Structures are given as structure tokens and as C-alpha cells.
Amino acid sequence: MPYHWITEPNAPTEVMHLKPHESLPVRGMAAFVLATFTLILIPAFALLGTPLLWILLPFLLLSVWGIYFALQRNHKQLQITEVLTLTQDTAQLVRTNPNCDTQTWDCNRYWAQVTKYDSEGPVPHYITLKGKGREVEIGAFLSEEERIALYDDLVRAFKS
Q1: Residue 31: strand, helix, or coil
Q2: Whose CA is closest to 115, among 126, 104, 103?
Q3: pTM over 0.85
Q4: Which tens digit of pLDDT belongs to each residue from 95-104?
Q5: For the chain, what is the total number of helices (H) and then of strands (E)?
Q6: Cβ proximity of 91 and 110 under 8 Å
Q7: Helix, strand and coil percent figures for the chain, each rounded to 5
Q8: If 0-12 CB within 10 Å is exposed, 13-18 middle and 19+ buried, where does residue 18 land?
Q9: Closest residue by Cα to residue 127 from 149, 99, 103
Q10: Among 98, 107, 102, 100, which residue's Cα sits nearest to residue 128?
Q11: Distance from CA of residue 83 to its chain's centroid?
Q12: CA dist 159 to 88, 109, 155, Å?
């Protein structure tokens, strides 16, 4: 699961860390770009020694760079973390975005509400936390099944 609870036995604080799932780690991305570069160069070997190679080479290198750039941007966009901290009295959600700015929401735990929008949100099974006059999203980057499980966990955590 891309989220997990960190709780100490007999501790009054519960902490949940949420992070998007990365299906392609950095080493896998490097291997993919290298394999793509190698496979693109195979047809270029037939053109060795001809002026046509120098015409096609910039386009081949541009395509490899485009793949690398797209994968690098995707990796950067996945650097989102959300930390939900539940104490006896308060609930606090801190979201760190890819550009390192943070957004914070907190309220009295007693008044906090967990809401799931099955089809009205930007994603199916959209989950929000309400409190102190604000409604904030949580776990929008998770898959549908993960959001359903997250909703059940949040409801259980806020009731206890």
C-alpha cells in the first residue's frame, strides 16, 4: 500500500504517511532509456559511413532526450507526500508538493468529518476531510481500490 500508519504501542498519536506508487524507480528509468537508445541505434548501424546518418542522428538523439525528459518529469511529479497526524484532540494534514511547498490543514478531531464522493469528485471515490470551515482532499493520487481502503481506515481512525 502506498500509505501506512506509524503508531507506537500505548501512544496517543497516530501518524499516516501517503505517497504515490512509483512503478518505475530511478534505476529502472535509466535502464529503460539506455535500452531505448540502444534499440534506436540498431537501424543507424546500417547507415554508418553515409551522409544520411548525420541527417537522422539529431532526430534519434532528440527522441531519446524526449523520452528521458518525460520520464524525469513524471518522476518529479510523484514527489508528493501527505502526512496525517491524529492526536487525542487534533487532526492535522500536511501535504508537501513536488515544488517543496507545503499546505497544512488542522482542526479539532471531534469535529472532523471524513467524506467520500463516489462519482462527484475529480476522481472516483474522492476522499475529503472537513473541519474548521475547510474541506481538503486526501489521497487523490491513489488508485480506486486504495482510496476505498483509505476511506475505511480513516473512518475507523477518526472513530477511535
Answers
A1: helix
A2: 126
A3: no
A4: 999 998 999 9
A5: 3, 8
A6: no
A7: 40, 30, 30
A8: buried
A9: 149
A10: 107
A11: 13
A12: 11, 9, 6
